[in-house]
């Protein structure tokens, strides 16, 4: 794991967000203010523009650079949350060419804990946490079961998808959608969808790079 790996993940996230821009914009028009995907793309575009800097770094500083760039470019409520995810991961990360499943699970969990502390949202809040928390728990479980990296990269997208789909029937307790009460029901949360898509794309990319 190094800056090149981080950049490969950013590319994968960018490609899937581009592909699903209209869909995520429509979700956010239904229960938010419509800007989520554009906020996020502004941040990811800024990361692509600093490719050389990120690629030159070791793992933790590459995450840290990406985190601060997201903080200054994404905005909305999700900007500080994505910052917390990468910053939390950076603080827990060590710089080594390869990391174990156990270390990767611990690093991701540290990022998700940082998002939870910042956003004060838990599971069933109809937010990105409904994807991040189950994925993090599953990751830790798989690590405890000594799962192989390939098995983890196959399993986490399924957990992410389940979490994303579950937001459809929830009432929102955090963010703009919480002002809608019952009217939020029946719509998937845009932040859950964007997080799920990024997790799936990143897992697919990491699996492909292992082949
Ligand atoms: P804003 O709500 O300020 O317009 P964005 O459009 O950038 O922010 O992001 C909206 C997404 O952020 C929501 O779909 C939801 O998933 C996520 N979100 C909002 N508030 C929180 C929170 N407190 N914790 C975790 N995620 C949240
Ligand atoms: Mg918004």
TrEMBL record:
Keyword Transferase belongs to the record: yes
Keywords annotated in UniProt: Kinase, Transferase
Name of the protein described by the UniProt record: Dihydroxyacetone kinase-like protein
Molecular-function GO terms, alphabetical: glycerone kinase activity
Catalytic activity, EC: 2.7.1.-
Xref: InterPro entries: DhaK_L_YcgS, DhaL_dom, DhaL_dom_sf, Dihydroxyacetone_Kinase
A Pfam cross-reference name: Dak2
Organism encoding this protein: Paraburkholderia atlantica
Enzyme superclass (EC): transferase
Superkingdom of origin organism: Bacteria
A single Gene Ontology CC term: cytosol
Signal peptide positions on this chain: none
GO BP annotations listed: glycerol catabolic process
PROSITE patterns: DHAL
Span of domain DhaL: 4-204
SUPFAM superfamilies: DhaL-like
Keyword hit for Kinase: yes
